[in-house]
Design a protein that fits this description.
- The structure holds 2 protein chains of 2 kinds.
- By secondary structure, chain A is an alpha+beta fold.
- Helix content of chain A is about 30%, strand content about 25%.
- Chain A folds into 2 domains: about 220 residues, FAD/NAD(P)-binding domain (3-Layer(bba) Sandwich); about 200 residues, Cholesterol Oxidase, domain 2 (2-Layer Sandwich), CATH 3.30.410.
- In chain A, α1 packs parallel to α7 and α6 crosses α12.
- By secondary structure, chain B is of the alpha/beta class.
- In chain B, α1 crosses α5 and α9 crosses α10.
- The longest helix of chain B is centred in the N-terminal third of the chain and has 39 residues.
- The chains are: A alpha+beta, B alpha/beta.
- Chains A and B meet through α2, β3, α10 and α11 of A and α3, α5, α6 and α7 of B.
Chain lengths: ~475, ~650
């Protein structure tokens, strides 16, 4: 790395998740000299950990779960080249009017409309392949989901997944895709845009955790720690932040940007998700085959502020969610193959907050207000009804919620007093610091964020290229 | 097989016990589910602990340390409270929830990842919960699987892989630090003690030596060495501060003892367990990865790995390579280890050193000896006779430090000789199972032939066999042979015999004894026997050899704080004791200065003025006269510093 010390890059990217590689891909094609820094490891489909323990430990910050101050929601924050696109469920949905109108009014940015965003969604989708799980490969867990919706007259829809060939006809069981897809089917950034960016000259340094940004005289210096704990430092004309909600907020706060931009760290959202399990007499084997195929697509649910998903998780995860310990715990887990699973994902309204302590560690403060709890309870009630209507003998609600869609903290908006990123995706007052990842979300959309991160990144990249 | 012993880089033994206890409260097991502790999944806890944030890790360490001392019902109560965390006010509830997720995370994760200790035979967790996702991948999608390295008669490609594994393990072993590495040594000690009878059976099967010889030299010896490591390794291998002279004021000087990397250890057939464990542990405790090659005559196949594995060593840390020397030995040297340590014969020593010279690999050789025992007239004859018999015939004379030449002062020679013959004839020779035999048969056929050749040569040239003269020259039960009238023409006088052959000689004076005891070729060990300790010490100093016992025999090896090694063709370098650590250490000098704007006086630019001040300073520092010298050096030192500062600011005028 020493050889890069005096080199001045055009762009430094902090974080190699979804946004960074999407922007870098376009900038590298445009001939920019880019360096991407990522705190996590760079795995390939040949080296993804295949054991649940290793996967969770090695690919998330803090070795798995992070807890907020009230420890009611556990946050899963990816720390790996490819970020969320490695371990997500690969759902790619466009936002609807509800989400975009809301953003428009909060941020004061008129571009947040279905018509304007459609261009960018198209461009984002052109970078990846999207498929639905064919009906014949739906597993029993998916059938229960579908049957329950039919019984109760709710609308559902097949999932649109970023994948190109899961080879389900060969009998693959894709549950391990949550720790990275060994088939190379999941359209994670290392399989798509990051790959082409690297071919176009992007320099990628993994296991470098950026700890400080110094913006002076129109230049950026980035300071970080490498895998050995040594200090590294790089220089560039521009900086693109792609460390996600917590990562970006922590970095900006630790670098002193909070004084002029008081909104940094404010407005943290995470779509709290709660898994529920229905236990049946017959075997369900939710882990076999394609482990997810459906989502709810019901107008009523959208108005109520929740959605339901047909999902599953590894045994380490489920074991943490089932109640009690000792013999009772064993009794539940011994029946694991009889479990069906549905998750309620709430569109949270109560903003949380990220602060840093004296050691520079991110502290998460995120509570559910009455409205948020209400949304969860309505969703959980529907799940109960689905399980009951399909013959479940017992229903178990997960012991705590999970925050996977980590959004906000650097909201986009026109007013520097209530936002952090300007409508041109630049940090207010800094023409050379950009961000277009989930941290700029002004509130919780209630829809999976991946595709919108890609679209916003495409838009940001186009803007940067135009101004160059 | 006893349970594999667990050592964690991140948790102490008592914290692990706390984790195990908590694990068994959360996962006590049912008639189908195994309990947390029975799976041994705790062995994999470091795979998780490594990635925890320091705060979380500290928290868990503290909690487990406390829970270790709590009765199980307290842990149960605590977890019950956690289950009802939502009924508590928020700050208590949050604490309980954190505790619950911490405790459950640390126990459920390894358990439900289907991990177990090696050799676990109970129900697998995945079978119990019915977790069998299939995943088919063609060559394209398949993660590269490592095929196990072939350690038995490896080809040169295998050897390449062996060293690759060793080099990958190196940094890992180093990172554990001496204290944690020592825990593996303590475990090994317990494992050996527990498996003592089994080890003795295996030893006797391979070496045929008597059980008593086996237990004293190989079990007791090994345990004593491991005990020595436990008590001394940390002290010896800790960073040391050394004085920094006045001229380097403001700086710190330190010595670090770091591993060299990969050590190749080659051992002979005579003490196959001792000569395996001792060098392996000596190299390991310094932090080296080890490639160990036992003799093909007494390989104790699988025994060493088994013991190490039970003690928690990972397979890559110590790899045992089997097969005939020669080609494999060459290939192992060609693999370019960072250090070669050989115990063996001169012939092999030469070959290895020659080959190592090609790559400039440092070697350390412990070769044979032709060790003298010098007995003066003022000794207690009974004791000296018993010592001579044991020194010459223990392990049927197959020790590199066996007595091979016995010099007795002429005034007591006859009496000594008669006693020697009488006592030798009492020796019981057998491979016993109860400890009742003194010596066993010879271990290798080759050695029987070598002895037969020496015996035939001696008989032909007129030597008198006082005992064992009736040996047929073929039986592996070579009897103890005391030989008189040996001359310098005979092989038995010059060559190491490595068997129960004891030539006896007379001498008349101290000077003659020293002259005779000093062998022109060898110099491994010697013993001097006399009531007059001053004389004994005089003689001990004059014998050119690596080790001397006074009024005892082969006993320097009995104290693991003493170094061991030879001079001349008996080899070089020292192992065991404090100096033994250095054989496997990169002794690194470190000088620490502050990062400041200060320039050093000895750096450029050189000027005539600086030269003058420096010359004055040198004179002041090193001339006799302490007080005035000190004041003067302080004065010139200050002057030099001021001038250097000025130079740095303004440059050469």
């Amino acid at each position: 790395m020493a050889k890069d010390y005096f080199k001045v890059f055009d762009f430094i990217f902090v974080g190699a998740g979804i946004s960074g590689p999407f922007i870098a891909n376009d900038l590298c094609k445009g001939g920019a000299n880019c360096l991407m820094l990522e705190a996590g490891n760079h795995y390939t489909r040949r080296t993804y950990p295949t054991n649940g323990l290793d996967g969770t430990s090695q690919m998330y910050w803090a070795g798995g779960l992070e807890l907020g101050h009230d420890a009611k929601i556990a946050f899963l924050r990816p720390k790996v080249v490819g970020g969320g696109s490695i371990m997500n469920q690969a759902l790619v949905d466009r936002f609807d009017d509800v989400a975009l109108d809301d953003w428009k009014s909060v941020s004061g940015i008129k571009d947040f409309s279905m018509a304007d965003m459609a261009t960018w969604y198209d461009k984002a989708e052109s970078e990846i392949e999207i498929q639905e799980i064919p009906a014949k490969f739906r597993n029993k867990n998916a059938e229960i989901f579908d049957q329950g919706f039919k019984n109760l007259n709710f609308d559902n829809a097949p999932l649109r997944r970023a994948q190109n060939d899961c080879r389900l006809e060969e009998g693959n069981c894709c549950i391990e895709c949550l720790n990275g897809c060994r088939l190379g089917s999941k359209q994670s950034t290392p399989e798509t845009v990051l790959k082409t960016a690297l071919e176009n000259g992007l320099t990628l340094a993994s296991q470098v955790e950026v700890t400080q940004i110094i913006a002076k005289n129109g230049d950026i210096r980035v300071i970080g720690r490498d895998a050995m704990g040594g200090q590294v430092s790089y220089r560039a004309h521009n900086l693109v932040l792609g460390g996600g909600a917590i990562g970006n907020a922590r970095l900006l706060l630790n670098s002193g940007f909070g004084k002029k931009l008081p909104h940094i760290g404010q407005g943290f959202f995470c779509h709290p998700q709660f898994m529920s399990f229905g236990i049946y007499d017959e075997k369900i084997n939710s882990h076999l085959g394609a482990f997810q195929a459906f989502k709810s697509d019901d107008k009523g649910f959208r108005q109520e502020g929740f959605k339901l998903e047909n999902v599953y998780a590894g045994p380490e995860g489920i074991a943490l969610l089932v109640p009690d310990f000792g013999r009772i715990h064993h009794e539940y887990m011994e029946k694991l193959s009889h479990f069906a699973c549905i998750e309620v994902c709430t569109r949270d309204t109560n903003p949380g907050q990220i602060k840093v302590n004296r050691k520079g560690k991110a502290l998460i403060r995120k509570e559910q207000n009455k409205e948020d709890i209400n949304r969860y309870e309505k969703g959980a009630k529907v799940i109960d009804d689905i399980f009951k209507s399909t013959g479940a003998k017992e229903i178990v609600h997960g012991r705590f919620g999970i925050g996977l869609h980590l959004m906000g903290c650097c909201a986009i908006g026109t007013d520097p007093a209530t936002s952090v990123i300007d409508p041109e995706f630049r940090l207010h007052g800094h023409g050379n610091i950009f961000a277009a990842d989930s941290s700029i979300f002004p509130n919780a959309p209630g829809i999976n964020p991946s595709l919108t991160i890609m679209a916003l990144s495409k838009k940001a990249a186009a803007g940067i290229l135009r101004s160059r | 097989m006893i349970d594999k012993m667990m050592i964690s880089k991140y948790f102490s033994k008592s914290q692990l016990k706390g984790l195990l206890k908590t694990g068994d409260v959360i996962l006590p097991g049912t008639n189908v589910s195994p309990s947390f502790s029975s799976t041994g999944c705790i062995n994999h806890i470091d795979r998780m602990a490594k990635y925890l944030s320091p705060d979380d890790l500290n928290g868990l360490q503290m909690v487990f340390f406390v829970l270790r001392w709590m009765p199980k019902w307290v842990i149960t109560l605590l977890l019950k409270l956690c289950s009802h965390s939502n009924s508590f006010p928020s700050f208590i509830g949050a604490g309980l929830r954190m505790l619950e997720i911490g405790l459950k995370g640390a126990t459920l994760s390894p358990y439900y990842a289907n991990l177990t200790a090696s050799g676990y035979e109970g129900n697998k967790v995945y079978d119990v919960i019915g977790w069998h996702p299939k995943f088919f991948v063609n060559e394209d999608g398949m993660p590269v699987k490592q095929t196990p390295v072939n350690l038995d008669s490896p080809t040169s490609e295998d050897v390449e892989k062996i060293y690759k594994v060793a080099r990958e393990s190196g940094p890992e072993i180093r990172d554990w630090g001496v204290k944690k590495r020592l825990q593996f040594i303590s475990n090994l000690k317990a494992v050996i003690l527990k498996n003592q009878e089994y080890i003795l059976d295996r030893l006797q099967a391979d070496t045929k030596k008597s059980r008593f010889d086996a237990i004293t030299a190989e079990i007791f010896g090994v345990l004593d060495f491991l005990d020595y490591l436990e008590k001394n390794a940390v002290k010896i291998l800790s960073d040391r501060k050394v004085p920094t002279p006045f001229a380097l004021m403001g700086k710190k000087s330190k010595v670090y003892f770091e591993p060299l990397g990969t050590a190749l250890l080659i051992s002979p057939w005579n003490y196959p367990f001792y000569q395996a464990i001792v060098p392996i542990c000596q190299a390991f405790i310094v932090g080296n990865a080890v490639v160990f090659k036992p003799s093909s005559d007494t390989p104790l196949k699988g025994l060493v790995e088994d013991m190490l594995s039970q003690a928690g060593f990972l397979p890559g840390w110590v790899q045992v390579v089997y097969g005939k020397g020669g080609k494999i030995g060459n290939a192992l040297v060609d693999g370019k280890p960072d250090k070669i340590f050989l115990i063996g014969s001169q012939t092999v020593g030469k070959l290895i050193m020659e080959r190592a010279a090609k790559y400039l690999i440092p070697v350390e050789l412990e070769l044979g000896g032709k060790d003298p025992m010098v007995v003066f007239e003022d000794v207690n004859i009974d004791r000296a006779v018993a010592g001579a018999i044991w020194g010459a015939f223990t392990t049927t004379g197959q020790s590199c430090t066996s007595v091979e030449r016995l010099f007795v002062q002429d005034s007591i020679y006859e009496q000594f000789k008669q006693n020697l013959i009488k006592e030798t004839l009492k020796l019981v020779q057998a491979t016993d199972d109860d400890g009742n035999a003194d010596i066993g048969p010879m271990t290798t056929r080759g050695q029987v032939e070598a002895i037969a050749a020496q015996v035939a040569d001696a008989k032909e040239k007129g030597a008198v066999f006082l005992t064992g003269g009736d040996w047929d020259g073929r039986s592996e039960f070579v009897p103890p042979m005391i030989v008189e009238g040996v001359t310098s023409e005979m092989l038995i006088d010059r060559e190491e015999n490595f068997g129960p052959l004891l030539p006896i000689y007379t001498f008349s004076s101290e000077a003659e004894a020293i002259d005779l005891a000093n062998d022109p070729e060898y110099g491994l060990s010697a013993s001097v026997w006399s009531q007059d300790l001053k004389r004994a010490d005089r003689v001990a100093r004059r014998i050119y050899t690596g080790n001397v016992s006074i009024n005892n025999v082969m006993l320097t090896e009995g104290n693991h704080a003493l170094p061991f090694g030879g001079v001349q063709k008996s080899g070089f370098g020292r192992y065991k004791g404090e100096f033994g650590f250095y054989a496997f250490a990169n002794i690194k000098a470190v000088l620490i200065d502050q990062n400041s704007a200060k320039m050093e006086a000895n750096w450029f630019p050189y000027t005539a003025k600086k030269y003058r001040i420096f010359s004055d300073l040198t004179r002041a520092l090193y001339s006799p006269g302490r007080i005035s010298g000190l004041i003067k050096s302080a004065f010139y030192g200050l002057k030099l510093e001021t001038y250097v500062k000025k130079l740095a600011k303004k440059g050469r005028k």
